[in-house]
Structures are given as C-alpha cells and as structure tokens.
Amino acid sequence: MANLTILRTYALKDPANISPSVLFRSSEKFLTIFDAYPKSIFHFLVLPRLTKDEGGFSEGDTANLKALLKADKQKAKELIESMKAEALEVKKEMEEEMVERYGYKWDSWVGFHAVPSMVHLHLHVLAADLVSERMKNKKHYNSFHPSLGFFLHVDEVLSWFDADTTYFNRMAQLTPKPYEDLLKRDLECWCCRAGMKNIPKLKEHLQEEWDKHAVKAKRAAQKRKATSDGDCLSVPQVYEGSASKRAKTAEPEPVE
C-alpha cells in the first residue's frame, strides 16, 4: 500500500529531502520526478506540492483528476493550467537532452491517466516513442497510447472547462469501467496503426519504424529543419537523466 501512496509522500516533503535519484526539478508549487518505471526514453511526473500555505486544495481534492474536477471548478482549471505550464518547462529540458544525446528531438505527450493507479494527482510528461524495457504488457502500452482514450491529453481536459456545464459534468465523472475496457483493446502501433499479436512483436515493430526514421531525423536536425509531424524516431535506451541529476532509482514505485 505504501508504494501506491509514494507520490503523496513526495508531495508533502520538502524537495531538499527528496533523493536526487527521484527528483528532477521543483518549484514553489510543483515537483517533477523521474518515473521509476519509464514507458519511454524520457518520462516524468509533475505533482502539485501540498504545503501549509497551499490555500485551496485538500489532500482529498488532489487525490486524482476525478477528485480535483469535483472541487471548485475555477480553481481546478487554474491548477491544471499551472501544471501544464510546469510540464512545458520540463519538456524544454527534455528536448535539450534529446538533442545532446541523440542529435535531434522528437515529439512528446503531456496528459493524465483517466483511472490512475496511484494516489495524488500527477501529470505525465513523456517522449513519444513508447519503447522501453519497462513496457511489459498490453495494459502498460494501451494506457499511454496517444489516441486510444485512456491517456487524456492535458489540452483535452482543459477543453472540458470551456464546454457547456452538462458536457463538463459528464466528462468529469471519469467513470472507471469504460476507460478500463480500453486497456483490453487489441495492440496496434500508435504511429501506423498496424495490428500486433503481442508486446514483443509490437516493440520489435516500433523499433524498426523508429530506426527507419532516425537517419532522416538526424539529417534534418543537422540542417536545422523540423522532422515530419508523424515520424517515429529511433529510441535506443531509456533516459535516466544526466549524471548530476540522477543516480539509479532508489525507491521504485508502481507507475501506471
């Protein structure tokens, strides 16, 4: 049970007391940590901090996205907007590391899981590759598939606030069953939509796709040109951060 609440533990801590093997960066309102079980080369979690002067959100309100959406609507929107802004700063650092390590950068995704497995609101920031040794099963993969529906892109969630009240209330329910059913869907490549029989075949296919585009991406980067929007890029290893920022993860936790 402790592992399921580890994010809440971090949110309550002074960042100075969090291991550098866990903490990527912090600000007055947020922590960004390395996902202990990354599903892409780069994978981070942005968490709202819980401090005495938080002024507005209880631990219950920040248990997960569903709980937040039941709280004060305007404050919930402002928090999600602030989390997005923090995530975009993380994305900038991530892209710098991409270029430094691989000579080019590729897309990334920012979003929530509709039905999270861990306590405390957290926003995923991950590179758009989904090739990782930690990608073990269909549930893992489908939970991050960018168009399946379980992974809720942050801009999609923010759009609910601008819709009519009936639509917002319906989406904010985040009823688990329909979303959990999505995790049982057949495997398909998120890039080309090709169906796959199992995870090993899917991962092999994704690697082949990204390797094929890697040369093109590097060549384009060298010429200071952007790669095509739909390209999958080569991703040879999982990111563990620069030596100054990350040692081997000391406190693994289950991550959706």
TrEMBL record:
Keyword annotations: Coiled coil
GO biological process, one term: single strand break repair
Entries under Pfam families matching the protein: DcpS_C, zf-C2HE
Domain Aprataxin C2HE/C2H2/C2HC zinc finger: 148-212
Coiled-coil intervals: 66-100
Protein's name according to its UniProt entry: HIT-like domain-containing protein
SUPFAM superfamilies: HIT-like (SSF54197)
Record PANTHER family: APRATAXIN, APRATAXIN-RELATED
Organism (species): Ephemerocybe angulata
Molecular functions per Gene Ontology: DNA 5'-adenosine monophosphate hydrolase activity; double-stranded RNA binding; mismatched DNA binding; single-strand break-containing DNA binding; single-stranded DNA binding
Alphabetical list of InterPro entries matching this protein: HIT-like_sf, Znf-C2HE
Entry's Gene Ontology cellular component terms: nucleus
Gene3D superfamilies the UniProt entry points to: HIT-like (3.30.428.10)
